[in-house]
Amino acid sequence: MTTLLIDGDIIAYQSAAATEVTVAWDDDLWTVHGYASETNAHADQTITRLMEKADCSRCIVMLSSRNNFRKELDPEYKANRVGKRKPVTLSAVREHLFNNYKAMIGDPVEADDLLGILLTKNPEKYIVWSIDKDLKQIAGRHLTDDGVVTITQEEADRAFWTQVLTGDTADNYKGISGVGPKTAEKILDADDGKTYWQKVLTAYEKAGLTKKDAVKTARLAHILTNETKNTLWSPPND
Fold it and tell me: Which of the chain's ends, N or C, has fewer CB atoms near its CB within 10 Å?
């Protein structure tokens, strides 16, 4: 029996945002409100639709912990989100997912990490769904808009190293200044006999950065797997 692993953070945020209502009572008074019942129903419908699309009869929902080991590595990690207003029913729908779907929360990791750990533990048993590009670095079966696709280990590795080179503005950590996906692709494709790690390290050093910088970015970018769930990412022998 195949089980669908679901990014509950995405479900919760999208459902809360989709059911939020802004009302202009007059020229002066504006309010924002939402009904938890509507948000929860939206989440339920989304999960049902995803399970049908993946042809799965069972699902496991993952939610991020309020604690995050990456913030200990870099206090600026996701600091760009601090102070930004969240949809009003977000807490309510997270509670709904926890109570009604027995959502998994692993302290101090993110939903992405839980997805990565389970998918790599038993890839034949699971299909994963998330719209977060970080999950592209995890090999296995993924549910997309086009159906279920398989990400190979080579594709997953390239996605990870691309992230190390470019950084992630959404999560507020830096890679190499001026390096985007196209430049990262050229760096990784270079026919120089080097491993991906060696290519990345060379690119960092050419930019005036250090191995320590590259390792820090890799640790922020790395989605935990069953093999790495209890350890920080470490560079291969270079």
Answer: N
